[in-house]
Amino acid sequence: MRSFSPKLALILGLSTVLFVGCSSATSSNNTANSTAVSDLSKKVDDVQKFVDVQKKSVNPGLGTIMIEYSQRFSKAWYAAQAQNWDLAKYQIVEMREIQETGEVDRPNFANSLKAFEAGFLDPLEKAADNKNMNDFSAAYDKAILGCNSCHAGQKNAEFSNFKFIKIQKPKNPPVDYMDFEGQK
Ligand code: HEC
Fold it and tell me: In whole angstroms, how far apart are CA 174 and each of 78, 96, 120, 143, 171?
C-alpha cells in the first residue's frame, strides 16, 4: 500500500477547509488562502528539518556506537582478569543493548551484528556465568577475530572495507576511574 505523505495530507486538508469555508470568497481572499497554504507548507518543512536533526542526534551512527562497544569489550576483559564476573557479564549485556541501537539505526549492518552476538557474545557471557577464565580467554580471542572479520567485510559510501580498524587484546584498562575488582 502506498503511504500518503503527512505533509501532503495536511496541505490538502487545510486547502479543503479554506476552500469550503470561503466558497463565496473574492479573489483577494483566494490569494490570502494560497499564501496561508504556502506559509503552512514552509512551517511543515521547518518541522521536518528539525525532526531530521533530532533524529541524527539521538540515533548515533555505527562509528559512534563502536566506541562504546569496544570500550565495554575492553572493560569486560579487565573485569574478568579481576575475577569480577558480574562486571564482566554486565559489560557484555550492555554491549548487546548498544548493538541493538546499531541494528535499528543502521539496518544494513543488523545481520552481521546479530551473527556476531550469537557467535561471539553468547560464549563470552556463558564463560562469565561459569566464572571460567580459560573459557573466557578463549572466547575473547575468538571475539577479537570476529570484530576484525566484520570490519574487513563491511563497507559504506566512503570505504570499501574497514580493515584499517584492527582490534587487539587491550594492553591497558580503558579507564582508570573504575576499580575492576568491584566492592568487596
Ligand atoms: C557489523 C560488523 C561489525 C562488528 C561485529 C564489529 N564492528 Fe566495529 N565497526 C564496524 C563498522 C562498519 C565500523 C565503521 C563504522 C562507521 O564509522 O560508520 C566499525 C568501527 C569500529 C571502531 C572505530 C570506532 C572509533 O573511532 O574508535 C572500533 C574501535 C570498533 N569498530 C570496534 C569493534 C569491536 C571491539 C568489535 C568486537 C567486539 C567490533 N567493532 C565489532 C562493524 C563491526
Answer: 9, 19, 21, 18, 9
